[in-house]
Amino acid sequence: MKKIILFLMVACTTFSCCNDDDNKTIAEIDKLPPLTTTGTNKAGCLVNGVAFLPKGYSPNGSNTQVYYDGESFTLSITQNTDIDLKTIGIFSNNTELHNNVSIPLILSEFANNSRYGLYTILNDNYQNNQQYQTTDLITGELKVTYHNYEEAIISGTFWFDAINSDGEKVEIREGRFDMKY
């Protein structure tokens, strides 16, 4: 009888102790790509605290794109699901981005020499589409942390707040990119 009770106690203790490693959730920020400067062609950010990473089909061929011609810089990250197409866009016009120099760029309203951020949601049925953008009062920052012209690699970080026409705000945080152009 003592052996049965001892066996039951050991069994209960063994089965009640589960491995918590299997149940751990990954923090949203840990889902983002690491900060690198090697041209990995990866980018991501947090949108209202949730990881935003490239996903699904893109009509342009890649869900992460960068363009730089010596003056104009564009970065876009796209998530395409069965429900909608979401895009983060950062644009800087008429700004030279120097090699290996961190340059904070204030993102503000669209203009010829502007620097701004967008968050766009397009639905499959093209109804209730939403566009959020920076303004003179609702801003952010793009920081180029590495730029190698010879290898055509540009890396950096970004964050911004943006509002839609109804005054609803979205927060883009912990943005990072490491791209070849």
Automatic annotation (TrEMBL):
It comes from the Bacteria. This is Lipoprotein.
